[in-house]
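User: Structure with uridine-diphosphate-N-acetylglucosamine, tokens only please.
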Amino acid sequence: MEQYIIKGGKPLAGEVCIGGAKNAALGILAAAVMADETVTIENLPDIRDINVLLQAIQEIGATVERVDRHTAKINGANIHSVIVDNDYIRRIRASYYMLGSLLGKYKHAQVAFPGGCNIGSRPIDQHIKGFEALGAQVQIQHGLIQAEAAKLTGSHIYLDCASVGATINIMMAACLADGQTIIENPAKEPHVVDVANFLNSMGANIKGVGTDVIRIRGVEKLHGSTYSIIPDQIEAGTFMLAAAATKGDVLVKNVIPKHLEALTAKLIEIGAEVEQFDDALRVVATRRLSHTHVKTLPYPGFPTDMQPQMTSVLAYSEGTSIVTESIFENRFKYVDELARMGASIKVEGNTAIIDGVGRMTGAIVSAPDLRAGAALVIAGLAAEGITVVEQVEYIERGYEEFERKMRELGAAMEKADSEDEKALLKFRLKVG
Ligand code: UD1
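Assistant:
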């Protein structure tokens, strides 16, 4: 187990370069095995969830060549098994994308029931409904989701909720179905669009992605491609909020500003300056920020994956803020950890009422999940004194070299083995 040790109170300053989008990469890697030709994927983030999925597709027979840290060549010609299951894959959410890709290609898939962050119940009924509409039989047995079809036929599917995972999964399977599939009420997140663009680069025929209706005309097979993944809007947003919380001045590079509009608008509303460039955003905060109301919504609304980090910023801001979580039912577990640092937050149902405190102090806290872990780091960077964030394994699922990037912005932050009793002492001696 590892931990971050942070000495807070220093404004972040400088430039940070954002990596490829985790949630796009997960869908794209799963889709990559659908061709029998080589697919080259660039701008892959080197993070735990991605490496688990790469290993899983290798285990079923795909060849995976890591050309460099952020580029992989994948060839799905020699897949010998449609069973995707191991200890690691059971812990990630995106394992379910192997259902859509293998079902599309081989009309049969058996995949471990998805894990992922514990942020409330995460049903997969919409995925199953979509596969069944395409003609598959789906069963859950012995911890595996099994989907099988004699043939897949295009269908008209109305999603009850705009699920990212279900939209991507149905798109993948429908690409190789007979005839036309229409998905109504699909998710419109940038990573959904990116997966569709990737599938189209392999010869799929997907139209309307990013709008309220997706139309997919099935093709015989998919071919090789070279594709570069979009920047990670959540990593970018996390650095923007870290800059705001520490009263810093940070240029966040390699982003698509349009994908960050909901966050940018909120930052401006609470008093930060956000300067927009073609592929970068500069966030400057010179004074204590103000309060606001935030409600998480599907894209283009405020992303649920930025909710904990935003709450950390509002915990320091002036006045009372209200944050409403409308996507997941249990996404405020980190609030108890922020309370150890002096935050004043009351949770009632899916709403957090935040009385901004001007000052928080470092404490030992534990990351309950990926984005909540990032929120605790932000709080620690802005707090007085030393914060220890335990269970950084969660954070590393989604952030590549988080502590190095923070250090390059001037943060006093290190990663240490949680068992190393001298780590804290050494850190204190180093940072003074
Ligand atoms: C993806 C992201 C996650 C992000 C979330 C919402 C990945 C790997 N993860 O998760 O980081 O927080 O989108 O932007 O891309 N739902 C159902 N039935 C279903 C599917 C979903 O009721 O079959 C509900 C969920 O409980 C939730 C909502 O729909 O309330 C959205 O979930 P969904 O978009 O599917 O999230 P994930 O794809 O799991």
